[in-house]
């Protein structure tokens, strides 16, 4: 009966601590501090986060996306505007992003409203991507059923032919979304499950902090 029994897997945390006094005044500054810290130890996908949305039956749905930009006004990721997540965001433009930085024993949750970024911002980012990724964006009908892998290979060849000798511009169905934060929670693992949780909530135009029980 040991199959699937993973209850023995556990870890005690304790490399750092967090308090209302130690966090910076603005959650995006605090995020930047932790992000840069995580970059030193976390490896290549420190910008990976779980994006959670709601489907048409109000079921939550999560998937990993890569954060590509963050600033005071929000957190940007890129995707297919006809994908399942995009359709969900169209109907219900609220989402959360959850980051887990194992090496720092930290989690950050960002919650807020989601908007498409201006087309010129998506254009600029698209043009920076490697050619393979740019072709892939054109070729993949993200989230739709496809018959087999060959379908994708054929699509890539079609796209290559279509753009031969021409500029490979951004498809209109691919671009960025910005999550505009209204709540950001910082979690620092501590010994004996007595973790530190500091949540920033936007009240009017002011960020207010609270400590939450772990
Ligand atoms: C490490 C990692 C990074 C990913 N980054 C992205 C991304 O930035 N954008 C994206 O659309 N999908 C990304 N994906 C794929 C998504 O998790 C997901 O499969 C895809 O977006 C389709 O989701 P949907 O059908 O809910 O729209 C990534 C997956 C992994 C594992």
Automatic annotation (TrEMBL):
Keywords: Flavoprotein, FMN, Oxidoreductase, Pyridoxine biosynthesis. GO terms for molecular function: pyridoxamine phosphate oxidase activity. Residues 174-214 form the Pyridoxine 5'-phosphate oxidase dimerisation C-terminal domain. FMN binds at residues 63-68, 78-79, 84-85, 107, 142-143, 187, 197. NCBIfam families: pdxH (TIGR00558), PRK05679.1 (NF004231). Binds 1 FMN per subunit. This is Pyridoxine/pyridoxamine 5'-phosphate oxidase. Coiled coil: none annotated. Residues 36-161 form the Pyridoxamine 5'-phosphate oxidase N-terminal domain. PROSITE patterns: PYRIDOX_OXIDASE. The keyword Oxidoreductase applies. Pathway: Cofactor metabolism; pyridoxal 5'-phosphate salvage; pyridoxal 5'-phosphate from pyridoxamine 5'-phosphate: step 1/1; Cofactor metabolism; pyridoxal 5'-phosphate salvage; pyridoxal 5'-phosphate from pyridoxine 5'-phosphate: step 1/1. It is an enzyme of class 1 (oxidoreductase). PANTHER family: PYRIDOXINE-5'-PHOSPHATE OXIDASE, PYRIDOXINE-5-PHOSPHATE OXIDASE. It catalyses: pyridoxamine 5'-phosphate + O2 + H2O = pyridoxal 5'-phosphate + H2O2 + NH4(+); pyridoxine 5'-phosphate + O2 = pyridoxal 5'-phosphate + H2O2. Its cofactor is FMN. It comes from Reichenbachiella ulvae. Substrate binds at residues 68, 125, 129, 133, 193-195. It comes from the Bacteria. Catalyzes the oxidation of either pyridoxine 5'-phosphate (PNP) or pyridoxamine 5'-phosphate (PMP) into pyridoxal 5'-phosphate (PLP). Its EC number is 1.4.3.5. Homodimer. The keyword Oxidoreductase applies. Belongs to the pyridoxamine 5'-phosphate oxidase family.
């Amino acid at each position: 009966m040991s199959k699937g029994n993973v209850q023995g897997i556990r870890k005690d945390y304790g490399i750092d601590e967090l308090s209302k006094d130690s966090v910076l005044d603005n959650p995006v500054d605090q995020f930047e501090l932790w992000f840069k810290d995580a970059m030193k130890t976390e490896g290549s996908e420190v910008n990976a986060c779980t994006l959670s949305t709601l489907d048409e039956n109000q079921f939550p749905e999560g998937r990993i996306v890569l954060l590509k930009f963050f600033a005071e006004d929000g957190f940007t990721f890129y995707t297919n505007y006809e994908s399942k997540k995009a359709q969900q965001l169209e109907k219900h433009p609220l989402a959360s992003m959850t980051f887990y930085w194992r090496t720092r024993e930290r989690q950050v949750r960002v919650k807020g409203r989601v908007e498409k970024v201006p087309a010129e911002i998506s254009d600029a980012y698209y043009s920076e991507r490697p050619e393979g990724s740019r072709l892939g964006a054109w070729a993949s009908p993200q989230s739709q059923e496809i018959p087999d892998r060959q379908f994708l290979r054929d699509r890539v060849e079609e796209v290559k032919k279509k753009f031969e000798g021409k500029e490979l511009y951004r498809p209109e169905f691919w671009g960025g979304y910005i999550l505009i934060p209204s709540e950001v929670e910082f979690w620092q693992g501590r010994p004996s499950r007595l973790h530190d949780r500091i949540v920033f909530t936007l009240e009017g135009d002011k960020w207010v902090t609270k400590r939450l029980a772990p």
